[in-house]
Amino acid sequence: MDRPSPAVPPHPPSSATKAGARPRDARPLLAARRLAEALPDLLVEANRVAATVAAGWHGRRRVGAGETFWQYRPHIPGEPTHAIDWRRSARGDDLHVREREWEAAHTVWIVLDRSRSMDWRSDLASVTKAERALVLALALAELLGRAGERVGVPGLLAPRADRRSAERLAEALARAENDAVPAPTAPVGRACEVVAIGDLLDDPGAIEARLGRFSAEGARLHLLRVHDPAEAALPWSGPIEFRDPETGERFHGRRAEALVAGWSDRWAAHGEALARLAARHRWSLVTHATDRPASEALLALHAALGGARHLDGGRGQRR
């Protein structure tokens, strides 16, 4: 499927340049400046979203070394006496042992699409796709950091367990150049998880080629598809112009209404193709519209990550 381009107003004419000089594309620099200015507010929003879904964030509840109380159980003859919880045992005639919860810290890589197609919104949403994707990435990093998980960005940020994971991610993104998927400098590692956040408007074959390398290394992928509601509904009427923000290609239509049926069919077909791609590789797929609360997408992603951690029935260990 060709990349469906949202209807956006054309950029103003570029300023005049010296004769023979090649005009410099200032958009990456402007985008970097806008990101740096927006990051403090986006971090606040990300923390708010993270707090909404913080209760019950995933972790494999198993007995073992840890600081979090899990349960009391009867003392088994032969166990050392220092394992007995005497305060709990004093309440009755039986001896009890206090067990702590073991949580297997593992690595989650976040791949964030920062291509130009993400920097757009319609009147139906209050935020751009890029802003929502960034808030979700930061909120996910915040929750994973709180849970003691290692968070990294391929080719940009080495994975580390840090309660400041959201801040580390924001700082790394502010320093990075725009790139749809940074090239990994080292393998992501087996049995880790990769969360790819973007609009996923490319042909599914191109997405498979770009992200499949993570699966080839043994990682499990989770796709978070972020779209503007207007991209799914084409709500306009009358003359309309579409412009691809990445290639500059334009399309003029006399009546937007005449395009709705074909647009809807292609949008549905693209979603079905993404679903088939995810099913074929056993990836999870979450679709999120930017006019919906960010917490909905994060909760759905939480369920996908939690489910992945139990695929082995609790016997294996994530790294």
Describe the structure in your own words.
- By secondary structure, this protein is α/β, with parallel strands linked by helices.
- The chain has two domains: 27-60 and 104-308, Rossmann fold; 62-102, no CATH class.
- The chain has eight helices and eleven strands.
- It has helices spanning 27-53, 86-89, 129-146, 165-175, 204-216, 229-233, 260-281, 294-308, and strands spanning 62-63, 69-74, 96-102, 107-112, 150-153, 157-161, 193-198, 220-227, 240-243, 250-253, 284-289.
- It has a six-stranded mixed beta sheet, with helices on both faces.
- A hairpin with a 3-residue loop joins strand 5 (150-153) and strand 6 (157-161).
- Helix 1 (27-53) packs antiparallel against helix 4 (165-175) and helix 1 packs across helix 8.
- The longest helix is centred in the first third of the chain and has 27 residues, at 27-53.
- The radius of gyration is 24 Å and the shape is elongated.
- The model is unreliable at 1-24, 58-63 and 308-319 (pLDDT under 50).
CA-based gyration radius: 24 Å
The largest beta-sheet arranges its strands as 6-5-4-7-8-11
By secondary-structure content and strand pairing, the structural class works out as alpha/beta
Q: How many domain units? A: 2
The rough form would be described as elongated
The helix/strand order is HEEHEEHEEHEHEHEEHEH
Number of strands: 11
**Amount of helix:** 25-40%
The biggest beta sheet reads: 6 strands, mixed
Instruction: Please tell me the overall pLDDT.
Output: 79
How far apart are the first and last residues' alpha carbons, in Å?
A: 36 Å
Unreliably modeled segments: 1-24, 58-63, 308-319
For the record, the CATH architecture of the largest domain stands as 3-Layer(aba) Sandwich
Strand content: 15-25%
Specify the CATH class of the largest domain: Alpha Beta
Q: What's the total helix number? A: 8
Query: According to CATH, what is the topology of the largest domain?
Result: Rossmann fold
